[in-house]
Write a structure and sequence with these properties.
By secondary structure, the protein is α+β, with helices and mostly antiparallel strands. 67% of the residues lie in helices and 8% in strands. It has eleven helices and five strands, in the order H-H-H-H-H-H-H-H-H-H-E-E-E-E-E-H. It has a five-stranded antiparallel beta sheet with strand order 4-3-2-1-5, with no helix packed on it. Strand 3 and strand 4 form a beta hairpin.
Amino acid sequence: HRKVETSRGTLRGAAVRAAAGKLADKVASCGLYDTLRQLGDIYRFQAKDVNALQVFQEVLGEVRSDNAQESTLQLQAKLAEILHVTGSVYLDQYNNQINSRAKADKGKCSAAKALLEEGLVICREIKSDNGAADSLRLLASAYSHLGMHDKARGTLKEALDLTCSCVGQMTAEVAACHEQMAFICQKQADEIRQQVNIHKEYIVTNLMSCYHSPGRRVRVAGLQNKPEFNGLEGVVVKVGALRIVVRLHNDKELKLKPENVQPLIPTAAKLQELILKIQDIAQERIASSKKAYR
């Protein structure tokens, strides 16, 4: 495993598999946690995210069990670490789907969000600023993927402050935070522009179908059997022949008839607010890019 870590880029194929195989003989000497943890790292190195996820989930189960029996500072630190790693694998899988232009599964982002939020709570309890900063940076990515851009930016600002206090301002870690902030700002500004263009299209065509497409924000209305969902807002995930799938803020998905999906049509004042928000986000993106470059 040390050879793999020190020779990244040179070890491939059989050498990596041989290193992974030898780890199986180390269970008795170095413990199940360390062995599986290292095996998961090797699978990630081989870009085998499915295998890595299975291993890390097994490790997570073991650590949860140990922590439930006797919670110590060391076990809590291990639990926070494995929650962070497992969450990052889910995000890797989602990013790989996007890069390969495959159908992206938002459920992976939701799973990553839940794990990272749990790990963040533990890091704060044991006062691990480095661990909290790492979790916050990944959480910002998960929030952004789920369309929660304002929360993503707020989370990343908190991560930036913690990172500065841990490693200093003029560091690669801080530059990476600024670059991530610029990316999130760009993504949010693009989505708001798209919303504004949809509203413009509706004003011209008066067609409600403008809003019945993936990514559009809508409101649930007119449900008779489940009235508790009426008035809730969400995002269109999928449009079928008879049903529209809407994901609510709590990640619950509803299959609704088109008449139960109302568009969020803004007033003129709201449109003006969206345009001003684009300008503010653009300024923030420029400032973050300059800081990263510096």
